[in-house]
Request: fold
Amino acid sequence: MSKFEWRSSRAYDLDHAADPNLAWECLRRNPAYQQDYQTLEDPEACAPSEFRNEWGLVFRS
Reply:
């Protein structure tokens, strides 16, 4: 896929996208989320509860 093809609706099959996957695509492209994520000291560790609550993140145990 070219670097600009992601803007094309033809690049995505949203009719068959699972809700969590679609939600993640929207969240990870949100500039406010990206900024908050960058402020985490260790993004590989479990995110602090404030971060999870702010963005509605739920992790299975």
Q: What stands out?
A: The radius of gyration is 14 Å. The helical segments are 19-28, 31-39, 49-55. The first helix runs from residue 19 to 28.
